[in-house]
């Protein structure tokens, strides 16, 4: 995986959000083949809102639709540092931004299952929160997560999200209804945690 370019060469050419082990960058068409594999993997799909198989054409349509959006609403690809190269491991997005009430919603997918349980999701969420509160000047960030997704909920709690409510049986996967938990964090809460 990856482009075959060294870290320094790529860093000079792209405007990217960097963490210690991961970076968030613009989605490129070459990423779609990985997204296609991930969203059609039952383990990965179980934690995201998609519930039907996706075609390569669906991924192309998604890419075109998001490429034409306002800069603030474009998704990011998630790369992890691997020796002197970067490896694509997922994607994330800030969406449903309400500029008047100053809030937005987050979505994340760590599609590469070899990266699960290694703290990459936590680092990505911290980068996204900094992006939301510092770059976009939002006051509140929220997300939704299936109640059965304990691993994701622990990650969100670790970075400061608070469970705010439950949408009873608002999710449906594999023949079963599931509650959807709404979690949120305010800029003031994030700033306290950062200090």
Can you describe this structure in just a few lines?
The protein has 195 residues and is an alpha+beta fold.
Keywords, please?
single chain, 195 residues, alpha+beta, Aminopeptidase, eight-stranded mixed sheet, 7 helices
Could you please describe the fold and organization of this structure?
The protein has an 8-stranded mixed sheet with strand order 1-2-3-4-5-6-8-7, with helices on both faces. Helix 2 (32-39) crosses helix 4 (56-67). The protein has a domain at 7-139: Gcn5-related N-acetyltransferase (GNAT) (Aminopeptidase, 3-Layer(aba) Sandwich), CATH 3.40.630.30. The radius of gyration is 17 Å and the shape is globular. It has 195 residues and is of the alpha+beta class. Strand 3 (76-82) and strand 4 form a beta hairpin. It has 7 helices and 8 strands, in the order H-E-E-H-H-H-E-E-E-H-E-H-E-E-H. It has helices at 7-13, 32-39, 42-45, 56-67, 120-135, 150-158, 187-194; strands spanning 17-18, 22-26, 76-82, 85-98, 103-110, 140-146, 162-173, 176-186.
At the fold tier of CATH, the topology name of one domain is Aminopeptidase
Number of strands: 8
Spatial strand sequence of the major β-sheet: 1-2-3-4-5-6-8-7
Weakly predicted, low-confidence segments: 1-14
Task: Report helical residue fraction.
Answer: 25-40%
Strand content: 25-35%
């Amino acid at each position: 995986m990856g482009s075959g370019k060294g870290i320094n060469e790529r860093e000079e050419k792209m405007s990217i959000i960097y963490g210690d082990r991961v970076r968030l960058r613009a989605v490129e068409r070459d990423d779609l083949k990985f997204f296609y594999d991930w969203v059609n993997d039952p383990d990965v799909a179980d934690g995201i809102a998609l519930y039907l198989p996706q075609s390569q054409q669906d991924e192309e349509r998604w890419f075109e639709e998001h490429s034409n959006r306002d800069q603030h609403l474009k998704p990011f690809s998630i790369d992890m540092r691997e020796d002197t190269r970067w490896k694509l491991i997922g994607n994330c997005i800030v969406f449903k931004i309400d500029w008047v009430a100053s809030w937005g919603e987050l979505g994340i997918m760590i599609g590469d299952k070899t990266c699960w349980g290694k703290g990459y999701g936590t680092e990505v969420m911290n980068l996204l929160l900094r992006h939301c509160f510092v770059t976009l000047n939002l006051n509140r960030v929220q997300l939704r997560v299936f109640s059965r997704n304990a691993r994701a909920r622990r990650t969100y709690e670790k970075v400061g999200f608070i469970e705010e409510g439950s949408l009873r049986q608002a999710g449906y996967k594999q023949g079963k209804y599931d509650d959807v938990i709404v979690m949120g964090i305010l800029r003031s809460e994030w700033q306290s945690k950062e200090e």
